[in-house]
Amino acid sequence: MSRALMPNMLTPQDLEPNWEWRERLPAWGHMSVDFERRIDHDRLRRYRLARTRQSLQNSKAGSLLLFDVNNIRYVTATKIGEWERDKMCRFCLLTGDDSPYVWDFGSAAMHHKRHSDWLEPDHCLAGVVGMRGTIPPDFGLMTKYAKMIAQLIKDAGMADMPVGVDYAETAMFHALLAEGINVVDGQQIMLAAREIKNWDEIQLLTQAASMVDGVYHMIYEELKPGVRENDIVALSNKMLYEMGSDDVEAINAISGERCNPHPHNFTDRLIRPGDQAFFDILQSYQGYRTCYYRTFNVGRATPAQNDAYVKAREWIDASIAMIKPGVTTDKVAEVWPTAESLGFPNEDAAFGLQFGHGLGLALHERPIISRAISLDHPMEIQTGMVFALETYCPAADGYSAARIEEEVVVTEKGCEVISLFPAEELPIANRY
Fold first, then answer.
1. SS3 helix, strand, coil % of the chain, rounded to 5?
2. I need a labelling partner for 325 at 20 to 30 A (CA). Which of 129, 145, 253, 310 fits?
3. Do 162 and 95 form a contact (C-beta atoms < 8 A)?
4. How far is residue 333's CA from residue 184's CA, in Å, rounded to a whole number?
5. Listed GO molecular functions (predicted)?
6. Largest CA distance in the chain
7. Chain segment 304-320, per-residue pLDDT in tens
8. For the domain bounded by 199-429, which CATH number is listed?
């Protein structure tokens, strides 16, 4: 018998999310121990592969060809470093009832054969296509691998069915079409699979959020005049990697007159007394992401700054109260203010300010909640989804603004907030 977790070994139990709704979701340490049942990585891998197979069966496609590193990790549980994210250097094929194939960057394929014993050894292959065009298409690699993929699909008996592709270089699409492959949108198939998290995914997301709790306490202590936005970013990166983060994707650090309009970045601006400042920490633990804003004032706050914070808090509390199984996303979006009421010409211009999005191996998963799209295209909220909900309120002074974000897990009865750094009232760092 193969050592791999073969398709015929997947059972209906592999699709069970195994939720354990307790008084509080656990945030474990990073180690495996013998005296507590923590993350079950084998169960996690089986669940994700089973969810993918179910989503594929629910579609018109017979195979999935994946270049998105989040999808590759979801299906194969392989990851070779955050540097791979924008390289277009790896790909994966899941076809019929066969085990997944993964083509990897050089010697990484040998590493998988040795250490990733849930995969078929002869399905761990070295291969590369275009690397974002740096290997020109006329070198023939795309044609070579398109032929190989077409043959594997034919061998699996799926040649007459469409192939779902998440994204690829334009030349790769042409190479696939030249082999007679009918390409359809595979990203929607994968996002459908990834919507509902199992217990292990929820624990990893909670652990990731708990790391950010600690970083915000550090920021609260360090935020004072003379410190720069980029100093806070540097300290946060250092702390997160020391805590076990595998990727600090970005940290927004925005203060003073930069708060309105929201620029979604950081600079070397010096923090000054009375500044309103907000931060977003985007990082991952074992691949599972955070998106977690907090707003602070430095030393003191004006009535206008307090008012903005109170409104942002009211809006986010209203949306949290709406999150429960069976509610549709338009009902959540309706409790948020209109773009026009905040001084924007339309909802497109305010997109991302009053916002909700799924969290998982990617920062933005389904469903998305926004007045720009959800009012006309509602989606149902389901148990096991994990959201980040974020609100933004510009202050009456014309330049300050408050930004709050909470991460929530949808339980059978409602939701549980897992972003726990105190935000019920405006935190004043180093109060005068």
1. 35, 20, 45
2. 310
3. no
4. 30
5. aminopeptidase activity
6. 72
7. 999 999 999 999 999 99
8. 3.90.230.10
Q: Could you please report the per-residue DSSP string of 343-378?
A: T-SSTTTTTTTSEEEE-SSSSSEEEEE-TTTTTTS-
Contact between 74 and 193 (Cβ < 8 Å) = yes
Stretch among 8-22, 90-104, 342-356 having the lowest mean pLDDT: 8-22
Taking the domains of the chain in order of start, what are their residue ranges?
Answer: 7-193, 199-429
Query: How far is Cα 114 from Cα 48, in angstroms, rounded to an integer?
Result: 22
What is the C-alpha separation between 282 and 296, in angstroms, rounded? 18
CATH class of 7-193: alpha beta
Reduced to 3 states (helix: H, G, I; strand: E, B; else coil), residue 164 is: strand
Residue type, position 399, single letter: Y
Q: What three-state secondary structure class fits 89?
A: coil
Give yes or no for a contact between 282 and 253, defined as CB atoms under 8 angstroms apart. no
Assigned token pair, 206 = 């909670």
**CA–CA distance, 151 with 251 (Å, rounded to integer):** 44
Quick one: which of 280, 278, 270, 293 has its CA closest to 224?
A: 270
Which of 279, 209, 283 has its CA nearest to residue 427? 279
Query: CA-CA distance, 69 to 123, in Å (whole number)?
Result: 17
Burial (CB count <10 Å: 0-12, 13-18, 19+), residue 164: buried
Q: How far apart are CA 168 and CA 407, in angstroms?
A: 31
Report the C-alpha gap between 269 and 232 in whole angstroms.
Answer: 11
- Give the pLDDT confidence of 117-164 residue by residue, as tens digits: 999 999 999 999 999 999 999 999 999 999 999 999 999 999 999 999
**H helices within 41-169, ranges in order?**
41-57, 69-76, 108-115, 141-155
Give the closest residue to 394 by CA, choosing from 407, 403, 386, 385. 403
